Amino acid sequence: MRVKHSETTTDKTLQQELSDTQETLKQSLEGKQQLIQKLKKTRREYLAIFDSVPAMIWYRDRSGRILKVNQCAADSVGMSIRSLVGKNYYELFPDGAKRALQQDLEVMETGRPLLGQLRSFTAYNGLKRWALVDRIPLRDENGRITGVMVFAIDITDKKRAEDDLLKAKSQLEQTNRHLKAATEQARLLAEKATRSNQAKSELLASSSHDIRTPMNSIIGFTEILMDTKLDEEQQEYVKTIHQAAKGLLDLINDILDFSRIEAGKLKIEVISCAIAELVQEIRVMMETQARKKGLDFIIQMDDCLPKTFFTDPTRLKQCLINLIGNAIKFTDTGHIALRVRSDNRAEQPCVRFDVEDTGIGISPDKQDIIFKSFAQADISTCRQYGGTGLGLAITRRLAGLLGGDVRLVSEAGQGSTFSLTLPLFVPRTAEHGPTSLGLRPMRRDEDANAACGHILLAEKAFPSQLTLALMMRRFGLDVQLAGTAEQVLECLDEQTFDLIFLDEGLGFEQVKTLVHTIRYQLPEIPLILVADRDDEPARTWRQMGFDECLSRPLSRDQLYTVISHYLPEQTSPARPAVRDSDLSEQDMACVESLLKQLPELAHGAREVLMHSDMDLLARFAELFSEIGQTTGQSTLTEKADAMLNSLREGGSSLQELTLAVDQLCDLCNQIHQTQCAKPKAE
Ligand code: ADP
Questions:
Q1: CATH of 53-154, one of 3.30.450.20, 3.40.50.1970, 3.30.70.260, 3.40.220.10
Q2: 255, 318, 326, 396: which to mutate for ligand 1, most atoms within 8 A of CB?
Q3: Centre of ligand 1 from the C-alpha of residue 309, in Å
Q4: CA separation for the pair 276, 269 (Å, rounded)
Q5: What is the third-level CATH fold of 271-423?
Q6: I want to staple 487 with a disulfide (CB 3.0 to 4.6 A). Which of 219, 421, 482, 513 is the partner?
Q7: Does any ligand 1 atom lie closer than 6 A to the CB of residue 386?
Q8: Which residue, 312, 323, 328, 340, is CA-closest to 400?
Q9: pTM here?
Q10: Which atom belonging to ligand 1 lies closest to the Cα atom of 389?
C-alpha cells in the first residue's frame, strides 16, 4: 500500500514538474515571440527612420559594393533601393568615383571618420547639387572594419541661398565701392567747383576793380570834355564814349552783384533804416536823371510811416535805384513816382515802395520772364533802351534776401508799377507821425556857376583826385587838394572851408581820426565821404560822422546835386566862375603835378622791390598805369600793366622783376625830363 502510495506521489510530482516545465516553456516562447515582435517593431521603426531621414545614407563594403541604401539616397540618383543594393558604387557612379574611393579608403585604413565635407554631385536629372558628407567606418561584431557608412545632407538650397547672399554681398561691396568712388568724385568736383568759384569770385573782384578804376576816369573825363568847346561831331563822339563807358560800368556792377548773390556771398546787414533819409538819398541820385528827360519826379510818403524800420538800407536802396532807373529809362513822357506806405492790416505788417511810371508798360505774357537773369521784354526794347537784363533779377533776389518780394502791375502802353514789399520790423521806441524830408529846393543846371564855395578835397589816388577836382572847379568852386591826413589838418588850420570831401583811399584809421577831429573842432562843416562801391557799408561811415556817403562812379550831376544841397545858399563866390581857358591851364597844372611826382614814385617802387613786398609793388604798378591813362602816357600804362600782369601770374623771377622796375623807373625819369623841358603855356 505504501509502494502504491509512494508511486502515486512520484507521478504527481512528475506531472507537476512537467506542467511547470510546460508553463515555463510556454512563458519562454511567449517571451521570445514578444521579443521577436519587439525586434520587428524596432526594425520597422529603424527602417522607417532610415528611409525617411532627409539625408542620403549609403553602406558600402571594402570593395565598394552597396550593402544598404535609404530612400533619400535612392531618390537622389533616381533609382530604386532594390536596383542599387549589391551593385558596385564606384562603377555605378563613375563621376567623382575616384575621389569617393580615395576618401572611403582613408576612413577604412585609419578607422577615423571624415566629417562635414562639402561635395558636389550630379543628381538624376543631370543638375549639379551640393551635399555635406560624413564618412564613418563600418565594423563587424569583432570590431573589424568591413566597409564605410556615408551620411550626406543635401544642402543645395542652403548653398544657393548662401551663394546668393555672397553674390549680393559682393554686389553690395561693389556698389559700395562705386558709391565711394562716386562720393569721392563728387567731393573732388565740389572742391574743384569751390576752387573755381573762388577763383571766379576773385577774378571778378580783381578784374572789376581793374576795370572800374579806369572806367571811372573815362566817365569823369568825358563829362569834363563835354563841357569844353567841341564842335558838333566831337560832342557826338564824346557822348558815345560816355554812354558806352557808363553802360559797361553798369554791366560790370550788375554781373558782380548777381554772381555774389548766386554764390551766396552777398552779406545782408539788418540795421535801423531811417526811411526819410533813404528816400532823400534816392531823390538826390535819381531826380536829375528824370528831369533831364522832362519827367516829373514825385515822392509821396504816408503820414503813418514809422521814422525807422529794420532792414539793410544799402540793399534796399539798390533795389529802389534799379526800379526807378528802369522807370526813367522806359518812360518818355509823364512822371515817375515813388510812393511809400505801410500796411498794418496783414498778419505781418509791411512797408511798401511803389515805383510808378507812365512809360511803355509790359504786356502780361512778359511779366514773369523779365525777372529772370539776362531777360528783357523783347529784342526791340533791348536795342532801343539798352541794358543787361540783370537789374530785375538782382532786385527780386535782393528783395527775397530782405524777406520781401517785388510785384508788378502793368499793361503794354499803360505804364508800370513795381511794388517792393518788405516786412516792417519797427524798433520799439520808433516814433510815428509825419516825416520830413527836409530838402532844400534843387538847383537847376543853369545855376551851376552860382554854386560857389571853398572845398577841401582829400584824395590819395591821383586820377580820381584829378577828376573830382576838375568837376568841382567846373562848378565854379574853389578846390583845395590834400593827399594825406596831415595835409588835411594843415589846410584846416590855415583856411576856412564850406565843405569837406574825404576819400576812403586815405585809409580807414586815418579817415576815422580825421572825422573825429573835424567833428569836434568844426562841427558845422558838412563832411562827405567818397567811397569805392561795395566796400565798407555806408552805415559804418555814417555812424562815424559823415553827412553823406557817395560811391564811385560819381557822375557830375550827382556831385553837383550833393554839393548844391550842402553848400550854404548865400555863399558868395569865393572867386569868379572859371573860364575854359583857365580850366585848361588848371588841367595842365594838375597833369604836371602828377608827372612831377613820377621820379619819386619810381624810387618808391624800387625800394618796395628791394623789400620784396610784391603786393605793394602791384599797387605801384596800378598807380603808374592810372597816371599813364590820366596823363596820356600810353607807354607808361603799357609797361605798368605788363609788370602788373607778371606780378599777378607770379611766374617772373626777381631778376626779371628788377629789370621791369628799372625800365619803368627810366621811363618815369624820361617823361619827367621831357615835361620839365616843355615851354610853359602862356
Ligand atoms: P535791363 O538792364 O534790360 O533794364 P532789367 O532786369 O532791369 O534789365 O529789366 C528787364 C526788362 O524788363 C527790361 O529790358 C524791360 O524790357 C523790362 N522792364 C523793366 N522795367 C520796366 C519798366 N518800368 N517799364 C517797361 N519795361 C520794363
A1: 3.30.450.20
A2: 326
A3: 29
A4: 19
A5: Heat Shock Protein 90 (3.30.565)
A6: 482
A7: no
A8: 312
A9: 0.42
A10: 8
